[in-house]
Amino acid sequence: MRCITYAGETVVTSDDVAEALITLTAAIAERGRADAITIPIVFEKNGEIGEASLVIGVGNDVLSVATDWEGPEPDFAFAAAQLRHHPLFPREDDGASGDIAYDVEPETFWDPDLDGFGPR
Question: Which among 24, 36, 68, 107 has most CB atoms closer than 10 A?
Answer without folding.
Answer: 24
